[in-house]
Amino acid sequence: MSAVPLGTDSTRDGKGRAALLRGIAPALFTLALAGCAQFQAYRVSTDGYKTCEYRAVGDCPTAALISHPAPMSYGMGVVEIDEQGFFADRAQAEAVVAMASAKAERGRSYVVVFVHGWHHNAGPEDENLEKFHDALRMLSGWRPNDTVRGIYVGWRGDSLAVKGLRYLTFWDRKNTSDEVGRGSFYEFLMRLERGVKGADPGNRLVLIGHSFGASVSFNALAQLYMQRFIDGLYSTSDGPRFRGYGDLAVLINPAIEGMRYMPFHSALQYYGGASAPLRADFSHEKRPALLVLSSEGDWATRITFPAARFFTTMLEAHNTAGIRGSGPDIGGGYSEWVMDVQTLGNFGHFHTHESLGIEQAGAKPLLQCPRLEPGRLARILNDSKAAPQTFPDSGIVLKHRGEPPTASPYWSANMSADIVAGHTDIAKPSLVCWIIQLVDAE
């Protein structure tokens, strides 16, 4: 067959197809960009960070520093982390640390850090941001003689803004949560802890990570918790020996595989056992240092997460018997594959307590949340080893599983749907009150 000479119809067809592709490509690229969630930070200022007064939803849409007026007064700072784990603006982070570390205007400071999860961001209409405002209002109402400050950690929780396609971002956003946790966020947390607790040890600092935000938090703090646990093994203090981050870190419906927690759990089992050459003495601990809470109504971590992880772990090698020699009950139940597929909060072998319930759920609105009287928490924790114990006001019912080490300050448990109904219903008054009760306990 002879070659087709230049200038024939076939050549013209080829040129036409190339021209068509050149015309379509920009349109396809534009369409893809249109479906992408916002790249830029929401609250970066070019003329300094000034405080904006917030009264209702939609106020202060671009402000990184916010104040809510009396009677439920509080301050809030927003710090944003980019896709690669760096501050969106270091000046923004400095302004937020300075706000949170400032001397309390009255009483002690309560500083609550919240890291949002999948499908959320630092935009003015974000549902998680509004629920955080709700929680700060509650806390301010319950602690009117103290200073309440919140920090909302924003990152790009969605890479696609198209509703029907957002669920396809699972793997992408999971990887991003790893990057955010390994980046500047750790530096921010260390500065914050030193600023808040260094100014006054009586100040309270709580970190709450939700969903992929719990992944961000755990990626940032896993090694710190291990380091402080090892330090506690050698401590001879008459007070608490096993420090966590600040006063308490809470991971709610964490979208992180159980395997990530196994090194820490293995250490707890080993050093908490009777045969360990260096034993963990938990008898001095007064309150938990870490809470891992997973709702029984959360389909995202119970169904979606394992389904997504199944396909990404098919070709990996896993031991079926877990980690040998870590403790008396580390055996075949600790399948590495199961831990790689199930979330941290849903892996039953990590649970220290039975599923949390709530007494007389919805019976009356929670109008107050006073501090527990001295020694009350110690009695509740001791008695919970034998029978369920109810916290006053918050109504949370706690029952220890009775498995050693029983006094460990690192807790993991399911929650009934009365406490957290699903994946994102995380600002229930009973849960907020219970967390503050634990933080305040003496």
Task: Fill in the keyword field for this structure.
12 strands; 442 residues; alpha/beta; disordered N terminus; three-stranded antiparallel beta sheet; 35% helix
Secondary-structure-based class equals alpha/beta
Q: Major sheet: size, sense and barrel closure?
A: 9 strands, mixed
Mean pLDDT: 86
SSE string, helices as H and strands as E: HEEEHEHEHHEHEHEHHEHEEEH
Count of DSSP-assigned helices: 11
> Number of DSSP strands?
12
- Order of neighbouring strands in the sheet with most strands: 1-2-3-5-4-6-7-8-12
Q: How far apart are the termini?
A: 93 Å
The helix content is 25-40%
Shape: globular
| Beta-strand percent range | 5-15%
Unreliable stretches covering 5 or more consecutive residues? 1-14, 20-34
Rg value: 25 Å
Structure description:
There is one protein chain. This protein is of the alpha/beta class. The protein has 11 helices and 12 strands. It has a 9-stranded mixed β-sheet with strand order 1-2-3-5-4-6-7-8-12, with helices on both faces. It has a 3-stranded antiparallel β-sheet with strand order 9-11-10. It is globular. The protein starts with 8 loop residues before the first helix and ends with a helix.
Question: What is this entry, summarized?
Answer:
This protein is an alpha/beta fold and 442 residues long.
Ordered list of secondary-structure elements with their pairings:
Layout: H1 9-34, E1 51-53, E2 65-68, E3 74-80, H2 90-101, E4 109-115, H3 127-142, E5 147-154, H4 170-182, H5 184-199, E6 204-210, H6 212-234, E7 248-252, H7 262-271, E8 290-295, H8 299-312, H9 336-341, E9 357-358, H10 376-383, E10 389-390, E11 396-398, E12 410-415, H11 429-440
Parallel strand pairs: 1-2, 3-5, 4-5, 4-6, 6-7, 7-8, 8-12
Antiparallel strand pairs: 2-3, 9-11, 10-11
Helix pairs in contact: 2-5, 4-6
